[in-house]
Design goal:
The chain is of the alpha/beta class. It contains five helices and seven strands. The model has no long low-confidence stretch (mean pLDDT 92). The structure holds guanosine-5'-triphosphate (GTP) and magnesium ion. Guanosine-5'-triphosphate binds next to helix 1.
Length: 204
Amino acid sequence: MKIKNAIYIESTTGADTSQSKTLPEFAFIGRSNVGKSSLINMLCNKRKLAHTSATPGKTQTVNRFMVNETWNVVDLPGYGFAKVSDKTRARLKRIIWDYIDGSENMVLLFVLIDSRHELMKVDLEFLTKLGEKGVPFAIVFTKADKNSKTALQKNTESIRNKLLEYWEELPPCFTTSSMTGEGRDEMLGYIGEILKDIHNNQTE
Ligand code: GTP
Ligand code: MG
């Protein structure tokens, strides 16, 4: 899929009534600092679309962007960030789950996992909750450029194996780098297929 344009629509913290919410949405979630906002910019080919920061906890609202005037990208706050007050953590958790539970247009949630580390407890807990709720998701390994080829292979394999201890089969998995563009074509191709299915179902 070609990205013709991507524009910022709005930042919200709860229910809202924007027109743009009627478009199919692909949302991005993962631990704080895993690279959600950077990946969105890489996919949309627009460096400053979503705000990024080396300091964890940058995204604190639900940020909506419209792509090709036909679908939305949603940048969510991160989870599992230790250095915030209990009050802030509870607020971010509420914002995340209000969106996931309440969104009528979210067709898929991309769950980002840092390719440099083992699967963390917070990731497993989050994925388990998605499974229990039947939320459709795919997994995205981020920051591939920060690994050697061997380490990347080893780490992603270890995360997959860990997940297979809990699931019979894995959801689609993508390996990406916002620095090099790795994984962009694969992710956009996958999004394009889903949008095509939605379109075909609507016109049947
Ligand atoms: P929060 O909004 O705080 O939850 O973070 P986030 O998940 O949106 O992460 P963000 O995109 O802001 O990136 C966090 C840091 O990681 C920034 O310093 C980015 O430059 C860096 N980063 C993100 N993706 C990549 C990548 O693929 N490769 C490298 N080398 N750095 C990355
Ligand atoms: Mg962010």
